[in-house]
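INFO  loader      accepted 1 record
INFO  loader      residues=201
INFO  predictor   begin
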Amino acid sequence: MKKIMLTATFIVALFSGYAQFQINPQLGVNYQRLTSPSENTDYKAAMGWMVGVDLRFGDRVYIQPGAFLGRGATVIQQNFNDTLTIEDDLVRTSLKLRTLVGYRIIDSYQFDLRFAMGPSYDVLMSVDDRRGNISWDKADFTKGSWNIDAALGFDMGLVTVEPSVSFGLSKVFNEDIAVQEISSKYLTYGLTIGFNIGNDD
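INFO  predictor   done
INFO  writer      dumping tokens
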């Protein structure tokens, strides 16, 4: 983790000396679900939120490191028999650190269309359920998870809009005996809107 962050910092410093530079504060919504539900359990994505900032260094090809605080929710439905079903919202707060590499497919004065992809790491900060019906808590989850993120960005003057998807690579649950057999990973869809601040000549 430290080696990756140091490498990313070195690349950012290298680019910042001679390339275009932008700061992009953003806020938006996300839909986060868990994959591979265990037996008698169903997962459904629910709306959450995210806020953060990324940087862009480069011209047609660019580096895009960023950090986002997010709150993601998944509806958990547990079916114990034909007559008893328990449902609750499992809510997780995390800090996403990511470094994407992007390419401007359209690069014009009035409109940019770009695509970026790269690794991210979600640091889990808290876990709670809204109704108190689920026994899982933060101790059942891994402290962080690796992902592959992809984003399609639209820039119109000072405004930037970015739909994205994050594919989880790490198991959500840790090796505690009660959850070690659950192989679920995160799948997160996001949509942010923000501002382009800086040099884009």
